[in-house]
Amino acid sequence: MDAGSFSSSVSSGKGRSASRRHPLQDVPSRPFMPSMHTSSRNPSSRQTGDRFIPDRSAMDMDVAYYLLTETRKEKETAAAASPSKEAYRKLLAENLLKNRTRILAFRNKPPAPAQPFFHEDDVVSSHHVKPAKQRRYIPQSAERTLDAPDIVDDYYLNLLDWGSSNVLSIALGNTVYLWDAADGSTSELVTVDDDAGPVTSVSWAPDGRHIAVGLNSSDIQLWDSTSNRLMRTLRGVHGSRVGSLAWNNNILTTGGMDGMIVNNDVRVRSHVVQTYRGHQQEVCGLKWSGSGQQLASGGNDNLLHIWDISMASSNPSPGQNQWLHRFDDHMAAVKALAWCPFQSNLLASGGGGGDRCIKFWNTHTGACLNSVDTGSQVCALLWNKKERELLSSHGFTQNQLTLWKYPSMVKMAELTGHTSRVLFMAQSPDGCTVASAAGDETLRFWNVFGTPEESKPAAKSATRTPFSSYNHIR
């Protein structure tokens, strides 16, 4: 690799911030109350009678009579009583009556029960209550920054992708570089001639080994990244540069400046199998749904199309509408597209500088579910694979990455650091790290979606890859 073209400028990877999670705690439910038919009192301590009824046997009747009549007599003789007589009366009450003032006598309070109605040991927890989930810590600065000189500052291109083998590809001018996230090593895949370049799009095949490279000359190259071998060149598919690519198993879908969308079966010699016609200007966004049944395309004509694979035709009749839905709600170019990972028919789309909106679509019914004005050009969109969150990258004025909570679309975080519009984003295979590339010629890595979970090694899949049956592509 050319020294200095893709070197690390800032590295703080070992200081990766981890999200802090607290373990769930079991909270007891409401205590169980025993049946009122079963008393836990000691039967031997029971006494007859009611403690609120006076007990004559406990009363001194003479004292009671005196207390009842003495007050009346005192009132009658109050004026004639001398000080000495009053002192005598008080002394008599203190010595003989013991200063008693109560006339009626009651039983003592009943003894305390031998056992309480219930003990803490009798409390039954019918269910476990989970404590509230703590908010994930989101680092506000990039985990790592790499130089990306000569990156083409063009909104309509797609120059960054992260493959399933944890290798990131980026096109810088006429050269495609590969960065291995496992060890941080960098290698050069290909440098094209000036008459063919610059590179206008890159996209990894599902197998994480093969990569498609779109060129300004309208050619599409297919490379084996492990052997750095050119396997095939698709020519004559488009009349101008190929700015968008999307894989659907063995089908490579290409979008060009000519407004055409073409499905190419890379396994066969006559690779063009379907053509979609609907855009009048450059196709700058292409994304297949997770099921592979629907394709979303965005163009510089401000249109968003939803294509269904069942409606595809190799030779459509003139005037035939191939699209399932055609949306013209955006007021600028539609490049940013992202299918929701937890709801198969939910698509998010972002508009350019004249629109600045993120819109959400039900692709089954064609309904626009919501529209949010972000205040700046929307360049790229990515869903969190584990939480209901959406990440968007923007242009002027802040050149930020914004994390949104879905569906409320409340801002959770704004990540700044780029000094030019953040044109491209790619997500790591584990879904935790996001790479962003901008016109400021830097590639930054953000730990925005959490930390990866330890997982068992996956068994080798028997699923056939696009190139599994061929030593080379004809």
UniProtKB/TrEMBL annotation:
Keywords on record: Cell cycle, Cell division, Mitosis, Repeat, WD repeat
CDC20/Fizzy WD40 domain sequence ranges: 146-446
Ranges of compositional bias, category Polar residues: 36-47, 462-474
Biological processes per GO annotation: anaphase-promoting complex-dependent catabolic process; cell division; positive regulation of anaphase-promoting complex-dependent catabolic process
GO molecular function, one term: anaphase-promoting complex binding
Feature: compositional bias, Low complexity: 1-16
Residue span of region Disordered: 1-54, 453-474
InterPro entries registered for this protein in UniProt: Cdc20/Fizzy, Quinoprotein_ADH-like_sf, WD40/YVTN_repeat-like_dom_sf, WD40_CDC20-Fz, WD40_repeat_CS, WD40_rpt
Record has Repeat as a keyword: yes
Function, in words: Component of the anaphase promoting complex/cyclosome (APC/C), a cell cycle-regulated E3 ubiquitin-protein ligase complex that controls progression through mitosis and the G1 phase of the cell cycle.
Family: Belongs to the WD repeat CDC20/Fizzy family.
Identification of the protein by name: CDC20/Fizzy WD40 domain-containing protein
Species annotation: Musa troglodytarum
